[in-house]
Every structure is written in C-alpha cells, then in structure tokens.
C-alpha cells in the first residue's frame, strides 16, 4: 500500500527539519526502515562532497559558505522523489529552503525543549555553533530560531519521549493521510 502511495502522490518526500538534537536523523532512519524509502542526511552529504567536516567548513570557509552548499543541496534534493530527507538545524534560516521542500514533500518540524537538546548533544563535539558554553549557545540559538520552526505547518515535540519509534509512526501516518 505504501509503495502505491509513493507512485501516485504529490507529496513525494518526507522532510525532517528542526533544531539540532531533536531526532531528525534517528527518526528518519526508523521511517526509512518502515517504508523502504532511502534516508538522505544533508549534513553527511555536504561533508562527503566537501571532503571535510562541518567544523572544518565553518572554520576554513565560514558559515555563509556552508549555507550556500546547503542551499544548492536543497535545490537538488527537492527535485528528486521518494526519499526521507534529514536536514541540518539551520535549514530554516533561508525561507526558500522550506518553500522548495514544501513543493515536493511533507515537511515536519521536530521540536524539543532546551533541556532535551542539551541532554542529547552534551557529548557531541561536531557542532560548530555550540563551541564554548553549550548551554548558553543552545538556549540562544533555540530562542532565535523558534519563530522559524514554529512557522512549519506540521510539528512534533520530541521532548521527553522515551523512544523515537512513536514519532516515526506519527510522521508515516501523517504522510499517508496527506497523500490520499
């Protein structure tokens, strides 16, 4: 049944957006397992193509260059179909990114409170925007991006959820109901 929906629907992709540590990649993996659709992790693709880590891109080329690489990848991915796309947390900074993804897919924003995000990224050193005081940076970034995340039509709060499985199923159900 799911593959029939994929062939005929307008919503060809599932796009996961949200702040770092909200579960985009983890939930995306579960959705991929359940649907058979491939998971595309944008940050991983950028790292592979650039031949350096996101930290190195930020340090050597700057955040504007990273955002340019991200924008080009959004254009490419939104022209494809039948995939789950896990975006980077800053994808919402350019409204064109969300507009492009909404044209070809169901965009779902995963939300989490600052405490949940901090718990999830506490030992992660691969996030250039969190260098230094992680708690202060998470709170400030989350607050500054909150209106952008809140503007996404479909939102799921992952704070305090013991498992990502219900979130994945909720997104699959939403995708199926929007594809009829």
UniProtKB/TrEMBL annotation:
Record InterPro entries: P-loop_NTPase (IPR027417), Shikimate/glucono_kinase (IPR031322), Shikimate_kinase/TSH1 (IPR000623), Shikimate_kinase_CS (IPR023000)
Q: Where in the sequence is the signal peptide annotated?
A: none
Q: What class of enzyme is it?
A: transferase
Entry cofactors: Mg(2+)
Per UniProt, the cofactor note for this protein states: Binds 1 Mg(2+) ion per subunit.
Q: In which pathway does it act?
A: Metabolic intermediate biosynthesis; chorismate biosynthesis; chorismate from D-erythrose 4-phosphate and phosphoenolpyruvate: step 5/7
Q: Which reaction does it catalyse?
A: shikimate + ATP = 3-phosphoshikimate + ADP + H(+)
Q: Which GO terms describe its biological process?
A: amino acid biosynthetic process; aromatic amino acid family biosynthetic process; chorismate biosynthetic process
Keywords from the named record:
Amino-acid biosynthesis, Aromatic amino acid biosynthesis, ATP-binding, Cytoplasm, Kinase, Magnesium, Metal-binding, Nucleotide-binding, Transferase
Q: Where does substrate bind?
A: 43, 67, 89, 145
Q: Which GO terms describe its molecular function?
A: ATP binding; magnesium ion binding; shikimate kinase activity
The principal location of this protein is cytoplasm
Q: Where in the cell is it found?
A: Cytoplasm
**What are the binding positions for Mg(2+) in this chain?**
25
Do the record's keywords include Transferase?
yes
A GO cellular component annotation here is: cytosol
Q: Where does ATP bind?
A: 21-26, 127
- What's the EC number here? 2.7.1.71
The record's note on quaternary structure and interaction partners says: Monomer.
Query: Which HAMAP family does the record associate with it?
Result: Shikimate_kinase
Q: What does this protein do?
A: Catalyzes the specific phosphorylation of the 3-hydroxyl group of shikimic acid using ATP as a cosubstrate.
> So what family is this one in?
Belongs to the shikimate kinase family.
The record ties this protein, via PANTHER family, to: SHIKIMATE KINASE, SHIKIMATE KINASE 1, CHLOROPLASTIC
User: What is the designated name of this protein?
Assistant: Shikimate kinase
Supply the source organism for this entry: Pontiella sulfatireligans
Q: Which gene encodes it?
A: aroK_1
